[in-house]
Design brief:
Elements: H1 2-13, E1 20-31, E2 41-57, E3 62-67, E4 76-79, H2 93-104, E5 113-119, H3 129-145, H4 151-165, H5 173-180, E6 185-190, E7 195-200, E8 206-212, H6 224-239, H7 252-258, H8 265-289, H9 293-309, H10 316-326, E9 331-337, E10 344-350, H11 354-369, E11 374-378, E12 385-386
Parallel strand pairs: 3-5
Antiparallel strand pairs: 1-2, 1-12, 2-5, 2-6, 3-4, 6-7, 8-10, 8-11, 9-10
Helix pairs in contact: 2-3, 2-4, 3-4, 3-5, 4-5, 6-8, 8-9, 10-11
The structure holds alpha-D-galactopyranose (GLA).
Length: 388
């Protein structure tokens, strides 16, 4: 595969020069959904699937991009000078946003580059293909131009670029996970302080299965930003009666005591999810430490119910995948993962039950929804790296 990528790069952009090959993972979140922009905890891991990038500096200021995932778009060109003014809806908005964000932070590239990408994360699956491209671009810029930025800074720049240049008001979870991933570990992250802990995540005799609904969704046109706005409004109202820095400062008990101050019922439900999900995530990390994978699974299930009923970001596709999974022996826990509205679910399944899971959940999904889901048995992987 590595040789094939280099060969394709030669074909597109010519041979010679210092050609380098990189990789950045995708991510899956185990629990702690829609908590990251509410100052709460998340518990995701990086994956071994992700985005490959082949890059080479140029002598001039041109930027040339090509993606093997969007071959029909061909080679897309811009330049360092012009890119500040160019807005576009094509995929290069992700790497160009990061290049621009680097410049704004005083890390201005002094020449252009050729960049070819290939991702093996299913597009629009909710496994963070866009954050993977953002962190990968930052990693490449740091390596090619010798910029001083830590991996955490790469994550923050990626998030800034997504917020500012790609129209999604996302939190830090995706970019942080991708930049800081560690093989066989999940990351227990407090998004308010960015304090984190690596938690070994190799459930004994069990596998992580991602079920992809194949219902495509773009974050930008989903209701993601709307949910965030509802939480902000809830925070403003409850914050008037009790001094807090974020919804995640509240325990369930204190929330119940003061929730009537949130006048709008919808906003109250959103806040309830944020508060309870944060506590569930803390409990889940603790359960894992105690080797109580059963409790971990129950908390995953409760997370899905809350996302379905209070946060309302699931929909029939994700609900079907999860509810069919719950019916099966050998399923330790199952829930939607990522932003929702389509995308994927994550399930922890006993090793001996994996084939049965794929067959039964897959069959029921097709019968009910009308098209097939895809299943991936995945492992927690490392953060970004240079391969060649
Ligand atoms: C998307 C965002 C994240 C996070 C999740 C929901 O993946 O990019 O910041 O908010 O949704 O947990």
């Amino acid at each position: 595969m590595q040789e094939k990528l280099i060969e394709k790069f030669h074909e597109l952009f010519g041979e010679g020069g210092d050609i380098r090959l990189y990789f950045a993972p995708g991510r899956v979140n185990l629990i702690g959904e829609h908590t990251d922009y509410n100052g709460g905890h998340v518990f995701p891991c990086a994956l071994t699937i992700g985005t490959y990038g082949v890059a080479r500096k140029r002598a001039d200021k041109r930027l040339r991009f090509y993606s093997l995932n969007f071959e029909e778009a061909g080679v897309l060109e811009s330049s360092l000078d012009e890119q500040k003014f160019r807005e576009s809806a094509d995929w290069t908005a992700y790497p160009r946003g990061v290049i621009r964000a680097f410049g704004e932070k005083g890390m201005e590239a002094d020449c252009g580059m050729d960049l070819m990408l290939y991702g093996n994360i299913p597009n629009g699956s909710g496994l963070s293909s866009s954050a993977s491209v953002e962190v990968l671009t930052g990693f490449i810029l740091r390596d090619l131009f010798g910029f001083a930025a830590t991996n955490q800074e790469l994550a923050l720049i990626g998030q800034y670029s997504e917020n500012k240049y790609n129209g999604v008001n996302c939190g830090i979870m995706d970019q942080f996970t991708i930049a800081m991933g560690k093989k066989d570990h999940a990351i227990f992250l407090d998004t308010a302080t960015l304090r984190y802990e690596y938690a070994p995540f190799m459930p004994k005799d069990a596998k992580i299965i991602i079920s992809c609904s194949n219902k495509k969704r773009g974050l930008g046109d989903s209701k993601y930003n709307e949910r965030r706005g509802e939480c902000e409004s809830a925070f403003a109202q409850i914050g008037e009666v009790i001094g807090i820095d974020s919804l995640s400062d509240l325990s369930e008990e204190v929330f119940e005591q003061y929730k009537a101050s949130i006048k709008d019922e919808v906003c109250r439900k959103r806040a309830k999810h944020a508060v309870y999900e944060n506590r569930r995530t803390i409990r889940a990390a603790e359960a894992l430490k105690q080797n109580d994978i059963g409790l971990f699974g129950e908390l995953m299930n409760a997370s899905h119910i809350s996302l379905r009923d209070d946060y309302e970001v699931t929909g029939p596709e994700l609900d079907t995948l999860v509810e069919e999974a719950w019916k099966l022996d050998g399923v330790i826990g199952s829930r939607m993962t990522g932003a929702g509205f389509g995308g994927c679910t994550v399930s922890i399944v006993k090793e001996g039950a994996v084939d049965d899971f794929i067959e039964r959940v897959g069959g029921a999904y097709k019968a009910k929804i009308g098209y097939a889901a895809d299943f991936y048995v995945v492992e927690a992987g490392d953060g970004p790296k240079r391969l060649l």
